Amino acid sequence: MVSAIKNPDPEFKEVIHTHFKSKRKHILKQIKDWEHRADDKLIASNSNQWLPLTFGKKIGTSSPTMSPFKQLANELTNLLQDL
Predict the structure, then answer these.
(1) In this structure, how many other beta carbons lie within 10 angstroms of the beta carbon of residue 30?
(2) Does an H or E element contain 19, and which?
(3) β-strands 42-44, 50-52: how paired?
(4) d(CA 28, CA 50)
(5) Which residues lie across from 59 on neighbouring strands?
(6) What does DSSP assign to residue 11?
(7) What sign has the CA pseudo-torsion 80, 29, 3, 18?
(8) CA 4 to CA 20: how far, in whole Å?
C-alpha cells in the first residue's frame, strides 16, 4: 500500500489515491487492530537490524527500538492522512 500511494503509475494516480481516500477509515482501523494484536516476535540481530521471525529477512531500521511493522504502520498512517 505504501508503494502504491507513494509511487502510483501516473496514468492511475487519481484512481489509486481516490481508492485509498475512500478506504482510509477502514485501513486505519485495521492498522490499529493489528497493532493491538501484535506481539513481540521480533529479534535484534548482531547488526542492530530487526529480523521478523515471520518474514525471515532483515529489514534495516533507523530506530532499533521500533519494529519494522510499527515503522510501516506509521508511514502508511501518515500517507493516508495526507491524501
Answers:
(1) 12
(2) helix 13-37
(3) antiparallel
(4) 24
(5) 50
(6) G
(7) negative
(8) 9
| pLDDT tens by residue, 16-37 | 999 999 999 999 999 888 877 7
Task: Cell numbers for 23, please give them.
Answer: 478506504
CB atoms within 10 A of CB 69: 19
Query: At 60, phi and psi to the nearest 5?
Result: -65, 150
pLDDT (mean) for 2-8: 94
Letter for the amino acid at 53?
Answer: L
Taking the CA atoms of 36, 37, 43 and 48 in sequence, report the sign of the dihedral they define.
negative
Whether 51 and 58 have beta carbons less than 8 Å apart is answered as yes
User: Which candidate, 43, 44, 28, places its Cα nearest to that of 77?
Assistant: 28
Q: If you ran DSSP here, which 8-state letter would residue 67 be given? A: -
